[in-house]
Design a protein that fits this description.
This protein is α/β, with parallel strands linked by helices and 567 residues long. Helix 14 (498-509) links the parallel strand 27 and strand 28.
Length: 567
């Protein structure tokens, strides 16, 4: 107990050895039906045995430090079995969103250089097609298949993918690991996040990142106090995002709690799931309270065990009303994949200023600046860009290790010790931070970050499209929705029905992009506002988008955006 935990696997094994009979994961009947698996609880000891068996299989096949393995396993128990087993060997995992399409998969597989993909059967054909088009030797296997032996040239090669630079020691006490095993600095996962330009960036996340995320959550206290061995956390958020993978999983592992994973948010069965699972904590996105608040009042609205919700983006007009109706606080927080828990901010103490988009105030472990476009600090009450770093001797403690293969982007995201978030906040008279807007050109729809240029690139490849600009428009439920302003090619049929053309283009884009990225609205325009160098004038596009929506000149294609495949 004198040496710090070195890995996620260490943390899980420590808890499993101390509390073998406590439940680690509960699979609800509705989730089991969706995934065609068994409902019920899985104890820490049961999962550890499965992890260790998988670990041995990977070890015998030659997997070791420096390698990456892709996991397309949704929110299934298989995800933990493979993640923890690979983590024990120093192998990084690359969670793959099941909604990604061919072009997106091609990019992710090539960029991450995964040596193996473990995936559910329904996605093997698409994954194999992506690998084949890249002439990639990557093998795709089922989660219960034996991992293929690695070629001697790949087995145990640590140099190619090791996380750069030293990483600060974790503050979490634990049992020692063998000196030859992974360390806190070892890359644990590579998570992709959309930027404002170019392709999605791969965020390299170390073992320290995950251990500190869990330690912060367990120790943050206040209205978010986590009771050791008592909590049951329900989340519909996907394990491909840091919220579920870092905060939810690690908080439960470090507190001997139980994790209840849904395949996604189902409004009609949400409260039944909450009650049946005995959830004491729920994680949410802003769209969820908005939808639940529209459901008819029920005498059982407060018949649950939930103590608090943890999330972001609740409609400020609904915040207090939701809490009064359902009987628990929605604790708004701010963080990014890049900052992890090294600079997380949370409104977990009163006053929370519900209804003002308040995210709380920074704790003693976080430093904050709010600056204008010149980098000068702004006065209280004035909105500016949020810059953050960790307090103390290591300003990057708990942060990501950098963007994979993009040192320039990593440098550009920092100003000295400060990470420049691109988010706009203000500080009220009492010192509390209030989220205002996103400075970056990212469309945030139901918690998903969508890079406009990625959608534009996909639509621009269609022969009927001459030029396109994608912009966010307000959506009462989802925060933002995607509007595509399209200039049709001269070769496009001139007598085609605009609505038919719009729907055909969106149907086509569903084969290129995840469903949530495709346009929910389409408007055909004669020209786009361009600079002298033929770049899109983003500010002008926002004005044009507002005029289009207010004038009823957009074709609604939201009904085509359906999860799970093409409409």
């Amino acid at each position: 107990m004198t040496q710090a935990m070195q890995s996620v696997y260490d943390a899980f094994k420590t808890t499993a050895n101390r509390y073998p009979d406590k439940p680690f994961v509960q699979v609800l009947p509705e989730t089991a039906e969706k995934y065609r698996t068994r409902a019920g609880s899985h104890t820490y000891a049961q999962v550890l045995a499965q992890v260790d068996a998988q670990r041995q299989a990977y070890s015998l096949a030659g997997y070791g430090p420096g390698l990456r393995v892709g996991l397309l396993l949704e929110n299934r128990l298989d995800f933990f079995q493979h993640w923890f087993a690979l983590n024990a060997l120093g192998v990084s995992v690359v969670p793959i969103n099941a909604d990604l399409r061919l072009a997106e998969l091609q990019y992710l597989i090539a960029h991450s250089e995964v040596c193996l993909i473990v995936a559910i059967a329904s996605h093997h054909a698409l994954l194999n097609e992506a690998c084949g088009m890249l002439n990639s030797p990557v093998t795709v296997i089922l989660p219960d298949a034996a991992p293929p032996a690695l070629p001697a040239s790949q087995a145990g090669t640590a140099a190619a993918h090791a996380a750069p630079g030293p990483v600060s020691a974790s503050l979490v006490p634990a049992e020692p690991t063998e000196p030859t095993g992974p360390t806190r600095a070892t890359e644990c996962a590579l998570l992709y996040t959309s930027g404002t330009t170019g392709k999605p960036k791969g965020c390299m996340l170390s073992n320290q990142y995950f251990l500190h995320a869990g330690a912060w959550y367990v120790g943050t206290g206040g209205l978010a106090t986590i009771r050791h061995g008592e909590e049951r956390m329900l989340t519909p958020l996907p394990l491909v995002h840091m919220n579920a993978m870092a905060y939810s999983v690690m908080a439960m592992v470090l507190s001997a709690g139980c994790l209840i994973l849904l395949d996604r948010f189902h409004p009609r069965s949400w409260w039944a799931s909450v009650r049946e699972s005995g959830a004491t904590i729920v994680h949410y996105l802003g769209v969820m309270p908005a939808i639940l608040s529209k459901m008819p009042a029920d005498p059982a609205d407060r018949a649950h065990a939930v103590r608090f919700g943890f999330g972001a983006g609740v409609d400020k007009k609904l915040h207090a009303e939701f809490e009064a109706r359902f009987g628990f606080p929605l604790l708004e927080a701010w963080a990014m994949t890049e900052t992890g828990a090294g600079a997380v901010i949370m409104a977990n103490h009163e006053p929370r200023y519900a209804g003002t988009s308040c995210i709380g105030r920074e704790g003693g472990d976080v430093r904050v600046r709010i600056v204008d476009d010149t980098g000068a600090d702004v006065a209280a009450g004035v909105a500016g860009e949020l810059w953050v770093c960790h307090a103390g001797g290591d300003p990057a403690f708990g942060f990501f290790s950098g963007y994979l293969k993009d040192e320039a982007a990593t440098r550009d995201a920092h100003h000295g010790p400060w990470f420049m978030t691109g988010d706009i906040v203000s500080r009220n008279a009492d010192g509390y931070l209030q989220f205002v807007d996103r400075k970056k050109n990212v469309i945030r729809r139901s918690g998903e970050n969508i890079a406009a240029v990625e959608v534009e690139g996909a639509l621009g490849r269609h022969p009927a499209v001459q030029a396109v600009s994608v912009v966010a428009v307000p959506d009462a439920l989802r925060g933002d929705e995607v509007l595509a302003c399209i200039v049709l090619s001269p070769q496009a049929p001139g007598d085609a029905n605009p609505e038919t053309t719009a729907r055909e283009l969106v149907q086509w884009s569903l084969s290129q992009l995840a469903y949530y990225k495709v346009p929910g609205y389409v408007s055909f325009v004669s020209q786009l506002p361009l600079t002298a160098t033929n770049k899109i004038q983003r500010g002008e596009m926002k004005t044009l988008a507002l005029q289009i929506m207010q004038g009823g000149r957009a074709i609604n294609t939201c009904d085509l955006k359906k999860p799970g495949g093409m409409a």
